[in-house]
Amino acid sequence: MKNRVIEKGVISFVVPVYNEQDTVRTLFDKIAGVMTQEKIAAYEVVFIDDGSSDNSWQQIETLLDTFPEHVVGVRFRKNFGKAAALRAGFCQAQGGIVFTMDADLQDDPEEIPRFLDKLHEGFDLVSGWKAKRHDPLSKTLPSKLFNKATSLLTGIQLHDFNCGFKAYRRDVLECLDVYGELHRYIPVLADEYGFRIGEIPVRHRPRQYGVSKYGFERYSRGFLDLLTVIAVTRYMQRPAHLFGGVGILSGLFGSASLLYLIILWFLGYRPIGNRPLLLFGILAVILAVQLISLGVIAELSRREHHLPDVEKMIQHKLPFQKTE
């Protein structure tokens, strides 16, 4: 990373790389070609080698030596996953506009101007939508079900949460903390801060080199992270509502069970001590007390240590003028 020139209007491209030695140079050439065509001189491509076992890093080093003003290279000691790679790339990127792309050439750099046009319409994050995918049914069907479920549960009307081809304004990235499998839920997290989310259909090219690095297990991990996102976006500022709500339901169930047994006792249906419902009722009431107490403790802890960052909520600030 030498002789790197960063200007005010620089555009950054963050590209996670995992065993893509055959595509790294081609992808850079395609991005550079689009930048030349659009007469954009200030750009950088941030390659993050996510613990590749092939010659991907050697390809990145060659690009660093050849185009030091346009290439940044980051190498992980081992494979940490796409979210970690994106997070590292976001930390390195200097651009006011940041793109994310996959390194396998299935994302077409020719779409970049359309993303820029959409951003200029006033959107803060533009997500690609692979309307026509060149993947087997074993990948497209779970993806469609996953996207539909995510859209219904989060209320974000996107067709393709899994698409890695996205464009962001710098303000969006400064509000996000990406880990686990949360990279696919970046639009959900951004929406929580009030950013405008847009979507455009993009071409999805067939894979020419290598094999897909993702299997069915990523969807199971993704759904677990979806629950995390829902909890964070809906209850981070009010944890007592989450724990208290579940606690109240548990308390109602336990109280109703015990009341039912008490009525049976008065009606002469004895004994009731050997009924499993008695144990369930008592446990439900105890659980309710614990959950409600936990909610109160979480609320006190949040107010003490996790007050919302007001700066992340502000879109514009006007000078304060004192009135006479």
From TrEMBL:
<keyword id="KW-0328">Glycosyltransferase</keyword>
<protein>
    <submittedName>
        <fullName>Glycosyltransferase</fullName>
    </submittedName>
</protein>
<dbReference type="InterPro" id="IPR050256">
    <property type="entry name" value="Glycosyltransferase_2"/>
</dbReference>
<keyword id="KW-0812">Transmembrane</keyword>
<keyword id="KW-1003">Cell membrane</keyword>
<dbReference type="GO" id="GO:0009103">
    <property type="term" value="P:lipopolysaccharide biosynthetic process"/>
</dbReference>
<keyword id="KW-0448">Lipopolysaccharide biosynthesis</keyword>
<feature type="transmembrane region" description="Helical">
    <location>
        <begin position="278"/>
        <end position="298"/>
    </location>
</feature>
<dbReference type="GO" id="GO:0005886">
    <property type="term" value="C:plasma membrane"/>
</dbReference>
<feature type="domain" description="Glycosyltransferase 2-like">
    <location>
        <begin position="12"/>
        <end position="176"/>
    </location>
</feature>
<dbReference type="InterPro" id="IPR001173">
    <property type="entry name" value="Glyco_trans_2-like"/>
</dbReference>
<feature type="transmembrane region" description="Helical">
    <location>
        <begin position="242"/>
        <end position="266"/>
    </location>
</feature>
<keyword id="KW-1133">Transmembrane helix</keyword>
<dbReference type="GO" id="GO:0099621">
    <property type="term" value="F:undecaprenyl-phosphate 4-deoxy-4-formamido-L-arabinose transferase activity"/>
</dbReference>
<keyword id="KW-0808">Transferase</keyword>
<dbReference type="InterPro" id="IPR029044">
    <property type="entry name" value="Nucleotide-diphossugar_trans"/>
</dbReference>
<dbReference type="Pfam" id="PF00535">
    <property type="entry name" value="Glycos_transf_2"/>
</dbReference>
<keyword id="KW-0472">Membrane</keyword>
